[in-house]
Amino acid sequence: xxxxxxxxxxxxxxxxxxxxxxxxxxxxxxxxxxxxxxxxxxxxxxxxxxxxxxxxxxxxxxxxxxxxxxxxxxxxxxxxxxxxxxxxxxxxxxxxxxxxxxxxxxxxxxxxxxxxxxxxxxxxxxxxxxxxxxxxxxxxxxxxxxxxxxxxxxxxxxxxxxxxxxxxxxxxxxxxxxxxxxxxxxxxxxxxxxxxxxxxxxxxxxxxxxxxxxxxxxxxxxxxxxxxxxxxxxxxxxxxxxxxxxxxxxxxxxxxxxxxxxxxxxxxxxxxxxxxxxxxxxxxxxxxxxxxxxxxxxxxxxxxxxxxxxxxxxxxxxxxxxxxxxxxxxxxxxxxxxxxxxxxxxxxxxxxxxxxxxxxxxxxxxxxxxxxxxxxxxxxxxxxxxxxxxxxxxxxxxxxxxxxxxxxxxxxxxxxxxx
Length: 419
Fold this sequence. Notes:
It is a multi-pass membrane protein. Keywords: Membrane, Symport, Transmembrane, Transmembrane helix, Transport. Its main location: membrane. By secondary structure, the chain is an all-alpha fold. The chain has a single domain, classed as Up-down Bundle (Amino acid/polyamine transporter I). It is built from 17 helices and no strands. The chain has helices at residues 18-26, 29-42, 47-71, 75-82, 86-123, 127-136, 140-155, 158-183, 187-195, 204-212, 217-230, 237-270, 280-291, 293-326, 330-350, 355-380, 392-418. It starts with 17 loop residues before the first helix and ends with a helix. The model has no long low-confidence stretch (mean pLDDT 84).
């Protein structure tokens, strides 16, 4: 029987905190590109998939945050305690390393490349930038933005990292939502796309991509660990949970609104007009003749913020996951995220595209997502959670999301091996 908990003294409606790190993580160049292509190719028809992914993310991230607040440890630490059988532990660790560590190393190059595209669209024509590119023969934005991300993480204080990412998320919100409003979308069609689930011919892969770029396992590690850090000094768990809930219902829907804005902008500019969109950088540049220079600069600014925010959170999430599983020392924790950051800087500055590594990471991620979802459900139903364990409603919602992740992962693996 569920225990009725007393109401907290204060119940904030909205706030920004650790869930903002999750938003900063999933609103990266990959999400911007996926949303842009979804809007350009299918208009507003796939907005329902975005709505589902936001709801599913909120369900899982609430459990991860509650686990971190109550146990004072991240998901990795809890998994290490839960999984005792040596073979199962070895398999789980291998999957986490493959999907989170290797995967984030590969994706980090894309994060910095996406941020570089945004910066280049704004300042790329400046003579100093052109001269620097010719002089060093590398992507100077990748070096500069990578250095900024290293500086933020090197400081090491959670409060600074949180504030930096809140600033970047707010910047993304301002940029992408303003761009959407400038393009004057069809709000009636948007509402229909949100409420009427349809899959146009050829859109299955895009649906998978829209959901898969939002519901990702490394965000669970990131949120549980950051929540444990944020509220570790607060003995009143009831108020901590209330603050976390307010944070969750602010940050995650805001991330969904940002993705909706990108998709809507691409739909307005491209859908039904016989134009072909190759990447998000093209979308930023193509808006100028249609909607003026302001739309181009706002879109580019949003892409810059999205890439930089993900460039900060991806190495951090990987380091949190490995620290929890392998009990890394503070120095090893720092070296983990630094190695991932350096790999991303090299990949982006040289213009490399490690497709085989990304393919491998996607396969591992497809296997890991339902497994981590199931482990999370087991953890929040553990007797160690006491009165903070899942309710029946939370379990029903959790297993519904688990079923969806299982189908999603199965489809992803099928396409990876047989398409």
